[in-house]
Structures are given as C-alpha cells and as structure tokens.
Design goal:
Elements lengths: L6 E7 L3 E7 L32 H18 L5 E5 L10 H15 L4 E6 L7 H9 L2 E5 L5 H7 L8 H9 L6 E5 L1 E2 L6 H14 L3 E5 L11 E2 L2 H7 L1 H5 L4 E4 L1
Parallel strand pairs: 2-3, 3-4, 4-5, 5-6, 6-8, 8-10
Antiparallel strand pairs: 1-2, 7-9
Helix pairs in contact: 1-2, 2-3
Length: about 250
C-alpha cells in the first residue's frame, strides 16, 4: 500500500519516464470514488485514518521546493504527474492547482509534461474539464465497456455510468489518452468484453491508448496478469486500424 507525501519522487514510471508525483489526497489515507480490485493503494476502507487534503498553497510550496532542488541537482524530470492515493480531481482546489503547476513547470522544467491520471468520473464537470484540457497528458480511465463490468472491476462509489464517461470523453475531441487495465481470468477481459471496449475506443477516438496489467500487489487476491504479447493480440484490431497503443506488461 502506498502512502505518499504531497510531492514525491521523481520515480521511474513505466508509462511516463522520470515522473515527479503530486498527491492531492491525504498523506496517510486514501480517498477515491472507485475501489478497484487491482489498486496498489489498497481498499478504500483501509485508508480512512487521514482525511486532510493539501490546499493549493500547500501544493505550491511543496512543488516549488522540490522543483528547485531537482534543478539544482541536475535531476531529470520527464513528467509532473498527478497520481497519489486515490482520485486527484476530488481535491476541491484541483483547477487552481493545475494552473500553479503549469506556471512552476514553465519556470523550472519547461520541457517536462504535466500529466493527470484520473478515472474520468468528474471530467464532465466544467471546471474539471477545462483544467484537464490545459495539461499535456490527460490520462483518463475506462476499464470496462458496461456498468455491470465496471461494478466488478472498479467498484464505483455512488452513481456511475459508463455512457456518462463516454459523453465526457467525447468533449475532448481526441485530446486525451485512454488508460485501461487488463486482468486475466474467468469473466475478466474476455473476448466479448474487449470487443465491446474497442467499440468505445473507436467512438471516443483518443490520441493514444495505454493498455496495461497489474505490476504490484493487489487488494483482491488471485488476480492474474496478461503478458505484453497477449495484450497486443487482444488489441490487434485497433493497432491494425492505426490507433497508437502503448502496451505495458
């Protein structure tokens, strides 16, 4: 289970290279409106001891200190990445924090990308949508093609409908990266599941798709990972159609 300070790393990311992380959630807890069976941060119920969210001021101070130190040390940063212990857009200061992050990025590491890893549940809210449009990499999750399947793998907290997310993604007009977790086993990412998911990819037309599988311990036991070659064959139709697919085993 991960517990991160507000700004952490940089660490090596299999998707983003040298990544400086920003955690907009509690340092000793977890807040998320998903409770995914594969989440490396564990179950939501086990992360309730801390509910304190960093403010925009907290983030500015921590991020400027870290960026200044990294630049002085000659530490490379490819991406400043919003991840952490849960869903970053749940922080009420998220739009303001995006603006200050872009400002500090331009000052200290102008070649670095700003990336947001999000489950896309709040992308339909105007302020969140506008903030996500500003970053270099809005990396938005869609693991399942239907509500029943999302209930199994993502275990949403509260109201969640795949088609609501699809409508939100369509507003980006392709200016986002879709991320999807593939899990192996009875009922997980079956051929029908993947075929239906590919139809949604064709509908929302992301500029790239990140397909990945589990890499660390998961809260639900017994989950099985795909190999990179197996995932490549599952998404072969999209590759053949010219979609940019990033596969991480």
């Amino acid at each position: 289970m991960l517990r991160e300070t507000t700004v952490f790393g940089p660490i090596f990311s299999r998707r983003l290279g040298s990544s400086l992380g920003i955690n907009l959630l509690p340092q000793q807890g977890k807040i998320c409106n998903f409770d995914c069976v594969y989440c490396e941060c564990g179950w939501n119920k086990d992360g309730l001891e801390d509910t304190t969210l960093p403010t925009a001021r907290d983030v500015r101070e921590a991020l400027e200190e870290k960026l200044s130190a990294c630049r002085a040390a000659g530490t490379p940063i490819d991406s400043i990445t919003f991840s952490g212990d849960g869903e970053p857009t749940l922080n009420p200061d998220f739009p303001e924090i995006i603006d200050l992050t872009l400002e500090l990025r331009d000052r200290y590491y102008p070649k670095a990308k700003v990336s947001v890893l999000s489950n896309a549940t709040r992308a339909g809210e105007e302020a969140i949508f506008q903030a996500l449009l500003k970053v270099d990499n809005a990396i938005l999750k869609l693991d399942a093609p239907a509500d029943g399947q999302a209930a199994v793998v993502n275990r949403p907290v509260g109201k969640y409908h795949v088609q609501d997310v699809v409508r939100s993604l369509l507003r980006f007009e392709g200016n986002f990266i879709l991320q999807t977790m593939f899990l192996k086993g009875p009922g997980w990412a079956t051929e029908d599941w993947v075929a239906d998911w590919m139809e949604l990819v064709r509908q929302v037309k992301p500029r790239a798709v990140m397909v990945y599988t589990i890499d660390r311990e998961t809260p639900m036991k017994g989950l099985q990972k795909y190999t990179a070659d197996e995932m490549r064959e599952l998404v072969r139709p999209l590759i053949d159609e010219g979609y940019t697919i990033q596969i991480k085993g």
